[in-house]
Write a structure and sequence with these properties.
Blueprint (H helix, E strand, L loop, with lengths): L3 E3 L3 H10 L5 E6 L4 H16 L5 E6 L4 H11 L7 E6 L2 E7 L5 H8 L3
Parallel strand pairs: 1-3, 2-3
Antiparallel strand pairs: 2-4, 4-5
Length: 114
């Protein structure tokens, strides 16, 4: 079973981006006060519980780690959204989804074979 690891600072973000050169890394940007984000997090947990690949899973909670969220948007060249799922490979975003597009089915499809 994979673990959802929090990114607490920009150094953790840099390490996650570097890790994506070795294996896929899925970043999940979460807002604690958004019902849609809570539903997307449930979908992510269901995906992780069934995942068998080598993808690493990381979470950025926007309320408590906004500088990390802002750095992710800037470093990865994506517009900030929450909830937001970003699949990284070789330091680049190869798939992303936000809001109701973050589902078990889509997460499975994105990480299939990784």
């Amino acid at each position: 079973m994979s673990i959802l690891t929090p990114l607490a600072d920009v150094t953790d973000l840099d390490a996650a981006i570097a890790e994506s050169r070795e294996r896929p890394v899925l970043l999940f940007k979460h807002s604690r006060y958004c019902g849609v984000s809570c539903e997307a997090l449930d979908e992510l947990h269901a995906h992780i519980d069934a995942a068998g690949g080598n993808t690493a899973y990381k979470i950025i909670t926007v309320q408590t780690h906004r500088p990390v969220s802002d750095a992710a948007a800037q470093r990865l060249g994506v517009r900030h959204e929450t909830p937001q799922a970003l699949l990284l490979r070789h330091g680049k975003v190869i798939w992303n989804a936000s809001h109701f597009r973050i589902t078990v089915t889509e997460l499975n499809r994105a990480t299939d074979g990784n």
